[in-house]
Task: inverse folding
């Protein structure tokens, strides 16, 4: 963590993703499979946002991290 932000690193590839405060909170709520249930709950509990909007935002975060190779799906 860097203050309210975080950085996710892939040391093997040398890639990273800087997360703002909201994304860092969401990332901390992802389970090992990247399932966003707890992440959405954390965002809704902390901010004045509808659950559907939080679900969309967390899903976008998961897609971005998958695309960058910083999150891997569990089979």
Result:
């Amino acid at each position: 963590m860097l203050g309210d932000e975080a950085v996710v690193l892939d040391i093997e590839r040398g890639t990273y993703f800087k997360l703002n405060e909201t994304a860092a909170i969401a990332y901390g709520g992802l389970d090992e499979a990247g399932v966003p249930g707890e992440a959405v709950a954390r965002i809704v509990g902390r901010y004045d946002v509808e659950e559907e909007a939080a679900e969309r935002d967390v899903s976008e975060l998961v897609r971005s991290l998958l695309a960058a190779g910083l999150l891997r799906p569990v089979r």
Q: What stands out?
A: The chain has a mean pLDDT of 85. Residues 27 and 39 are 7 Å apart (CA to CA).
